[in-house]
Amino acid sequence: MAKTFGFESTTDEVLEGVNLSGKRILVTGVSAGLGVESVRSLAAHGASIVGTARDLGKAKRALDEAYAQKAKGAEIDVVEVDLASLKSVRKGAGEILQAGKKFDAIIANAGVMACPWGKTADGFETQFGTNHLGHFVFVNKLVPLLNPGGRIVSLSSAGHRICDVNLEDPNFERTEYQPFFGYGRSKTANILFAVALDQRLKGRGIRATALHPGGIQTELGRHLTPELIEQMQARWRAGNQGQAQPMRFKTIPQGAATQVWAACVAPADAVGGHYCEDCNVAEINDNEAPRTGVKSYAVNPARAEALWALSERMVGEKFTLN
Question: For the segment 210-236, what is each residue's pLDDT rounded down to a tens digit?
Fold first, then answer.
């Protein structure tokens, strides 16, 4: 009988009894939070990991526990990649491609949240450019290294429920910038990217999925001002029909559980092309309350294709995967 997991499940519980020896997994954003915990738990179960980080020194320090706990034969390497710079993205992807070693999963974990108005090195709005376009180029370039039966896991958020992508004004050139609207757009894009990837790759036995890790207090929230926190809490109250119950946070091992579950444990056909939360596939929920499930616009195949075409134009590169 298959084990059941939920909100409180941790990475170690999800991977209990799972032997990942001989598997290779790529994880972006391994200098803090969920990325570090994913590397620790996966390597402890035998997987060899290639992580990416903007700051290699910080990442290597953060991974001390992962190095200490990794199983015999497991390797942990870190490659410099700044997702806010397509030059850095392409350079890092090139290094990994040149090594030529295959992967069994890619976990697109890195991201920024609700940051002040800004632009990436390529002139994109920071959140859309980092969370979506950086991963769009990086993951697409590495698809040739994925083994049949491989997985691509795209970290999204319940924040996708704030708003859909804006295909006419992705960089807020004609729209007033609001930090959480920028975040919502980028997190919807993360789901649509997984939908489009899954459609292109499932014929080759490779499946893609997106997920909400849960509310976790990590470095991701470093840009949250008191005003932004109040906005977040107001949305939480509205999503709980005005009830004043506090937000329920997960621990970091609980937060990383859904991504390691989706990458290594969940049935591929169950999660492929879908959005997951709490180590389960989420249902479509277009209601404003409760704030669970996935908005239908985020899993709309036509929107996914439109975003793919826009993304190719923005990064100046086409990706033919199927």
Answer: 999 988 875 554 544 556 555 555 655
Q: What is the DSSP letter of 58?
A: H
In a domain, 298, yes or no: yes
Q: Give the mean pLDDT of the chain.
A: 91
- Residue 116 covered by a domain: yes
Q: Choose, from 177, 183, 275, 297, the residue flagged as catalytic.
A: 183
Catalytic site residue 183? yes
Nearest to 278 by CA among 10, 27, 99, 42: 10
Q: Quote the CA–CA distance of 55 and 97 in Å, as a whole number.
A: 21
**Domain span including residue 309:** 11-315
Give a yes or no: residue 5 inside a domain: no
Domain membership of residue 2 (yes or no) is: no
By C-alpha distance, which of 109, 116, 161, 158 is closest to 134? Answer: 109
Lowest mean pLDDT among 101-105, 113-117, 313-317: 113-117
